[in-house]
Design a protein that fits this description.
Blueprint (H helix, E strand, L loop, with lengths): L7 E7 L3 E8 L11 E3 L6 H18 L7 E8 L27 H9 L3 E5 H14 L8 E6 L3 E7 L2 E2 L38 H4 L2 H15 L11 H13 L3 H24 L4 E6 L6 H13 L5 H6 L1 E4 L3 H18 L1
Parallel strand pairs: 1-4, 4-5, 6-9, 9-10
Antiparallel strand pairs: 1-2, 2-3, 6-7, 7-8
Bound molecules: zinc ion (ZN).
Zinc ion (ZN) binds next to loops.
Length: 341
């Protein structure tokens, strides 16, 4: 255990089923090197969820032998959609379906309950901030990066000069909903892919688990008749197995992941011309896949990211590290940064 600095911050990653917590000291050292999880109870509504976060906060401090009075600030991250300041969307969302969540000031409520400043980020932005800081350390402020995190949806984060770009309405870095060219990406007769946001042909419509279930798998099953995945009771269930098939080199699964990698490469090409980042980070389930498959996927993304020669010399491609802890750790970094400003 590290010697605690003069102050600590706590990072709280609020998820659909669990909260994961971490503690960061003033020197930049994490006092927790594993998942410290407690139930999030978000489906029971905001009052119960805020109390669950307080429990998570107290629990992680106990785990590292610290007291709440050493803590100067708290970082909170959750799935979106939420405003830059942590007000949950008035339309609700998958995780925040309880009616009490609509328009709820999640950050403000936790701040009031803990009596400590709370800094909010959405989960993808928190992970992006963590990846950036791991890569650049003390030089974080001298670099920019972009992170695409492939999960149920396609989360993203843009870090400029070491800071998360939040935007006027808190919606910067919504990389999943950036429309990308479909020409040459879709196979013959493959229908234009729709996204839950209403767009057709954005990055998430291809590069997400939802995209596999709704768009990619239904098409590719027609091209691989009799494939085992077609015998599962639902596309939702089959979609979850596609990665495992990909790791084994299954041709149908590889077609799906090739399209995903192309979509991500095209998304990164837009980023290259828009903000020209130092590092392109890729996160999500594929990071946890076997090394051979993972390396092939990252190389395919890179192959489809069209950089200018000058950019090729300075840009790098990397995976989001410690993915399951990245949200809590990024949230903690944001809280620590707020104390240094
Ligand atoms: Zn979309």
């Amino acid at each position: 255990m590290a010697i605690p600095g003069p102050w600590l911050v706590v990072g709280l990653d609020n998820g659909g089923t669990t909260n994961n917590a971490t503690v960061l000291d003033k020197s930049g050292k994490f006092l927790v090197d594993r998942l410290v999880e407690t139930p999030s109870l978000v489906r029971e509504g905001p009052d119960v969820a805020v109390e669950s976060l307080v429990e998570s906060f107290e629990h992680v401090l106990e785990e590292v032998g610290e007291v709440p009075s050493s803590v100067r600030a708290v970082g909170l991250d959750s799935p979106g959609p939420a405003s830059a300041n942590g007000v949950i969307s008035s339309r609700g969302s998958t995780n925040f379906s309880h009616p009490g969540w609509r328009g709820f000031d999640f950050r403000g409520a936790l701040e009031q309950r803990l009596g400590l400043p709370v800094v909010y980020n959405n989960d993808a932005n928190a992970a992006a901030l963590y990846a950036h800081h791991v890569r650049y350390g003390a030089e974080a402020a001298a670099h920019s990066s972009i992170s695409a995190i492939v999960g149920t949806g396609l989360g993203g984060g843009v870090v400029e000069a070491g800071q998360v770009v939040k935007g006027a309405a808190g919606m910067a870095g919504e990389l999943g909903h950036v429309p990308i060219p479909m020409e040459g990406l879709l196979a013959e007769g493959q229908p234009p892919p729709g996204c839950n946001c209403g767009f057709v042909g954005d990055a998430e419509s291809i590069a997400s688990l939802t995209g596999i279930e709704k768009n990619l798998l239904p098409y590719w099953l027609t091209r691989f008749e009799g494939h085992e995945l077609g015998r599962l009771p639902s596309l939702a269930e089959a979609a979850k197995f596609v990665r495992r098939y990909g790791e084994r080199g299954d041709p149908l699964a590889l077609e799906i992941f090739r399209q995903q990698a192309m979509a991500l490469g095209r998304l990164f090409t837009i980023a290259a011309n828009y903000s020209d980042p130092s590092t392109y980070f890729l996160g999500g389930g594929v990071v946890e896949a076997g090394p051979r498959f993972r390396d092939w996927f990252l190389a395919t993304v890179r192959e489809h990211t069209l950089l200018r020669e000058e950019q090729t010399r300075v840009a790098s491609f990397a995976l989001v590290p410690d993915l399951d802890m990245a949200g809590a750790r990024g949230a903690a970094i944001a809280a620590a940064e707020s104390l240094k400003r």
